[in-house]
Amino acid sequence: MLNLSRKTLLAIEAVLDVALYSRPDPVQSKEIFRRQRVPHRHLEQVMQQLVRQDILHGVRGPRGGYVLARERRRISIGDIVRAIDAMDSGKEEDGSTSPLHEQIVAPFWDVQEASLLDALDAVTIEALWHDARRKGLARTSEPRDFTI
Fold first, then answer.
1. Which residues pair with 140 in a beta bridge?
2. How far apart are the C-alpha atoms of 119 and 115, rounded to whole Å?
3. Domains recognised in the chain with CATH numbers
4. CA–CA gap between residue 125 and residue 139 (Å, rounded)
5. C-alpha span between 85 and 129 (Å, rounded)
6. Pairing relation of β-strands 65-68 and 56-59?
7. CA 12 – CA 28 distance, rounded (Å)
8. What is the Cα Rg of the chain in Å?
9. Which of 11, 37, 54, 62 has its CA 20 to 30 Å from the CA of residue 121?
10. Any residues with CB less than 8 A from the CB of 148 and at least 6 apart, and which?
11. Cα dihedral 110/116/118/120 (nearest 10)
């Protein structure tokens, strides 16, 4: 079941931060922690899940950190939500097996969840990146974005 938790919002913020600041060097998690003032205890596990789900790429070494694994326009908010949802799946038991739950509530929620994910799939990191730039929430000089 889809869970739009604080961890999910943290993941969206982290991916957007990497999109805004990863040129020319990878973004280190401590920089995200400093800029976004997010809970450090969850940040590393969220970042690793985003790497496992091919949203971010981890760069090793003393100047290592994270970069986007795909172009900004190819990462949707729905991708990030699903990645974090996969991380948390199995931790929360539904518990209810009542006829009302099985026949009414669960099917209703499934439809709503699908609609929400469709809406989130329509929004990309590229769109949020442009919004953040317009609002002055990024570097002042625009890094070059090369696609090969």
1. none
2. 6
3. 6-134 (1.10.10.10)
4. 16
5. 23
6. antiparallel
7. 16
8. 17
9. 37
10. none
11. -140
pLDDT at 2: 74
In the structure encoding, which two tokens stand for residue 46, read together?
Answer: 């969220």
d(CA 33, CA 44): 10
Kindly report, residue by residue over 83-136, the tens digit of the pLDDT: 999 887 755 555 668 999 999 999 999 999 999 999 999 999 999 999 999 999
Q: What is the pTM of this model?
A: 0.84
Q: In 3D, which of 26, 30, 10 has the Cα closest to residue 18?
A: 26
- How far apart (Å, rounded) are the C-alpha atoms in residues 38 and 42? 8
The beta strand positions in the chain, using DSSP E, are 56-59, 65-68
What the block records as the tokens of 32 is: 């995200």
Structure tokens at 93: 């038991």
| Token pair recorded at residue 141 | 């000089």
Sign of CA dihedral 132, 134, 136, 142: positive
C-alpha span between 37 and 91 (Å, rounded) = 26
**Tens digits of per-residue pLDDT, 32-85?**
988 888 777 789 999 999 999 999 999 998 889 999 999 999 999 999 999 999
